[in-house]
Amino acid sequence: MSETRKIAAILVADVVGYSRLAGADEDRTLARLRALRSDLIDPTIAVHHGRVVKRTGDGILIEFRSVVDAVRCAIEVQNGMAERNAGLPPERRIEFRIGIHLGDVVEESDGDLMGDGVNIAARLEGIAKPGAICLSEDAYRQVSGRLDMEVTDLGQIELKNIERPIRVYSLQVGVPAQAKPATELKAPEKPPEPKPRSALLPLIAGIVAFIVVAGGAWYFLAGTRTAPAVATAPAPVASNAAPAPAHLSVVVLPFTNLSGDPSQDYFADGITENLTTDLSRIRNSFVIARNTAFTFKGKSIDAKEIGKQLGVRYVLEGSVQRDGTRVRVNAQLIDAETGAHLWADRFEEDVSDLFKLQDQVVARLANALNYELVRAEAETGAHAKNPDVIDLDMRGHEALWRFFQQPTKDGLLAIRALFEQALKIDPNDADALGDDATTYLNEYSFGWTNPDTDYEAKILGQADRAIALTPHNPWNYSTKSVYLTNTGRAKEGLRVADAAIAINPNYASEYAYRSIAETVLGQFEQAKSDIQQAMRLSPRDPRMGPWHDYMAWAEAGLGHYDAAIEEANEAIDAGYKVFYPYLDLAAAHAIKGEIDEAKTALAEARRLNPKLSIKWLMGHAYGQPTIDALRKAGLPEE
User: Fold this and answer.
1) Are 233 and 371 contained in the same domain?
2) Which of 158, 386, 400, 425 stands the most exposed, by the fewest C-beta atoms within 10 Å?
3) CATH code at 295?
4) The domain containing residue 110 runs over which residues?
5) What is the secondary structure of 595-620 as a DSSP string?
6) What total number of domains does the chain contain?
7) Do 33 and 148 fall into the same domain?
8) Domain containing 619 — which CATH number?
9) Helices 624-633, 595-608: inter-axial angle, 10-degree rounding
10) Nearest Cα to 220, choosing from 401, 474, 513?
11) Domain boundary among 154, 172, 190
12) Mean pLDDT in order along the chain per 10 residues (638 residues)
């Protein structure tokens, strides 16, 4: 029986006192459990993209691709059980204990999971109190700071048959977190009282949980898992000169309620609060506190004036409109210095599908706003006389995004110079290390290699250092994954890609990068699905050209050669005019017997990369069908 290893979020649950309940009334207990599965448990698992691995009578083992999904699922189930148990005597209540762990598991060919990742989750479930959720430290890191409930640190606990003690956190579902005080600007007037929470808040909770964190959020990912308090505005200074706004300083103005119903203000206010809270968790960000921001509610004040008053570079504002079951959210980012609108987007969905709407809004805002903030900051840093490490990192990363649209060797070397300048200032800057590794990956991938360069050290070595310094930044995993795949280690590359997606399931580009490993391994349908997911998460991504090319690889693997030709042309039309899509065109045309078209495409590919040969392809993870097709089109052996 074949097996594979991977990183997964594992949830284990069972019924507290099941033997006692069954002994008292087995038929009724079984009937209630069946009803719970069909009405609550199974639909909730499906909504959060879980896979039921096995059921064990009163227990269940579920696999999720992210801890966020696992915890959301667990919370919804526990809240649902609390509602169903209301009014029942204790002896008749069905209550669940739940354990969640993120770790390495072994997947058998039949889909069963084994290993420490499963064992630890099972032991965590065993120590959970009725109605509670126990998380390992590895799992808790993924969601710390996002939980609007009481969390108890149980400390290091010896779990049965587990070699080392595990730090455990217990979530008390239904018990709100204690608010932490924060110093604020003196408000010009009393802020409005917070409105009551409602069942609709899952829609807005974390509307930008990954703003500037998803989709290649190299710099903004938190270096630690301790969530900082919402920042306050700068203290006044004695000088008449205003202090320069901090990097990524932003205020989230109260979103406007356009529903025509004042009773819906709470909904718009809730969006504002969640945006403020989530932005405050970004590493080195400066976010104006909610109460200060709310002093501007209902006032028409120029964004430039707000920026001066609060000392911020950016103003984020928006509106919410509910019409029956439809919800429309508009958001726009404004440069507080110039008043220019940097970015705007609209999200609309049926409110009856709250989680779908939440996921779509989070993902699209995250990926789009991430790029826009990086671009805006990069342009600011480009004019600085004495750029610091942060400026250099942002300028380089924004240039990397532009590089993917029109790759050139000279452009890549100019980008590398920015990261190497940053590393001279700080040799342990994880962002510069990871991005410098990415420049060497592209040098290797595009055939611009230097025989004197140790690519294992420059790519894997630097990526591993960056991962060690910031283990929760998925960008560095991407670089490592693609290089492993391109050098004949696709199974390792796939495992690394899985780890990145487990860290951040909204990380659009990692789905595309994972598809490369899946294509090499012959998993063409999954590769196609992952590329489609990347395009859904970031429909305006500057890397769309390469993504269409990855889709061409997957379509060719499925034998869809017309579709492969169409996708390769889409890549070229998007500006990705490098040799890769032309190779795909040549191979697809050759397989179809269209030799003239194949030779034309191959000639262009060889013009763009004169090193191309059968030998070169064999060293870059190309499959035998493609190699045979290109040999047929006239590609020389060496």
Assistant:
1) yes
2) 386
3) 3.40.50.10610
4) 3-172
5) HHHHHHHHHHHHHH-TT--HHHHHTT
6) 3
7) yes
8) 1.25.40.10
9) 100
10) 474
11) 172
12) 78 89 81 80 84 86 89 88 78 90 86 88 91 91 74 87 88 60 37 37 30 30 28 34 59 83 70 62 59 78 85 84 76 84 74 52 52 52 53 75 76 90 88 90 86 91 88 82 90 90 77 91 91 78 85 91 91 85 91 91 89 82 80 88
CA distances from 167 to 67, 326, 456 (A): 16, 43, 35
* Statement to judge: residues 168 and 205 lie in one domain: no
Distance CA 501, CA 478 (A): 10
Distances (CA, A) of 286 to 145, 149, 300, 463, 568: 16, 24, 23, 28, 42
Closest CA to 261 of 323, 216, 192, 214: 323
The tokens describing 483, both together, are 């290089």
210 and 329 fall within a common domain: yes
Q: Are 103 and 97 in contact (CB under 8 A)?
A: no
Asked if residue 489 belongs to a domain, the reply is: no
Q: Is 168 contained in some domain?
A: yes
d(CA 311, CA 185): 11
335 dihedral zone (left: phi>0; alpha: psi -120 to 50; beta): beta
Please, which residues bridge with residue 55 across strands? 60
Count Cβ atoms below 10 Å from residue 177 Cβ, excluding itself. 11
